[in-house]
Amino acid sequence: MHPIHSKVSPMIHQYIERESGQIVTEKLYADRMINFLYNHARENAGTLFKALTSSISSRLLGFFNYDLPCVLNMCNSKHVIQDLNIDLDECMESIEHLNSPRKIFERKINYWEKRPMPDDPAAVVSPADSKMLVGSFENESQLFLKKKFFQFEELIGPEKTEWLRAFSKGDYAVFRLTPEKYHYNHAPVSGEVLDIYEYDGRYHSCNPGALIAEATPYSKNKRVVTIIDTRVPNGSGVGLVAMIEIVALMIGNIIQCYSDTRYQRPRKVTRGLFLKKGQPKSLYRPGSSLDVLIFQKDAVTFCEDIISNMHHSNVTTRFSKAFGRPVVETDVTVRSHIATGLS
Hints:
With 343 residues, the protein is an alpha+beta fold. It has helices at residues 31-44, 46-52, 55-66, 69-74, 77-83, 101-105, 111-114, 152-156, 161-166, 208-213, 304-310, 318-323; strands spanning 14-17, 23-25, 123-125, 130-136, 171-177, 184-186, 191-199, 223-229, 240-246, 253-256, 274-275, 280-285, 289-295, 300-302, 330-332, 337-341.
């Protein structure tokens, strides 16, 4: 029996900019293509839909959009940077170096100056420049959402019983990275890596319409799961934290490249490695993508403005239509305060 899917909605999608509090209408990249893919291709040609969300198709789309010689020749870096509203003052490389779509996408920034962290040692910080939602696996929580974005067991891994028990009835945060964003992920907490593993999967789009049209797409995509123990010396003291990096359309790979200092001496993330909060952990290559953080029950409390924004009734979002009540994203910056430990 096949699951019932919703149509991709043509409605606008808005979010709240955290710093200004303004309601912003998002420019959805390739929205028409996504609409075709998740309506026509899926309903009328299931084989085509599976092919288009495969790893091969995703790599090809990434190549055509970021690496094809004719694209490179046509690339006017200044025009692309202006169109994406990229702040050159925060980029480490000059505009002359950022001379291709891929280089623009994989740019490094002066995060130690431009993305300051809170002084509170109990603060949990955003892993990415992204649009953020929060939720809970606890049915009685005001943050409980229907199981639409992902299936908890499927996302963590059905055979990972230890971690499934550890995060049962916990809270989570979802971070949606759009193509214009800075695409390094940073450690949201300080702690030791207890486990890191990868699941193969599809390459579903992170377009809001696609997410509400497809049943639990996050947990079907290729992803890397990192379990961080923050109870160790110099850790953040917020229990266990699961950081899940999820690929999407046109993402070729997730490169684990942790650096203790700026971007220097990057190395692969392995068990036993101590991650310092706010430091670069990985890089998406390239396209849109997604991070999910999962916390243990009663371990953290999310910042009040993020919760308040999520329940804003005057913002038009595709998520609100899907859930039948306000579900609004907040645009957050990497290393910014998103939650506080309760211990």
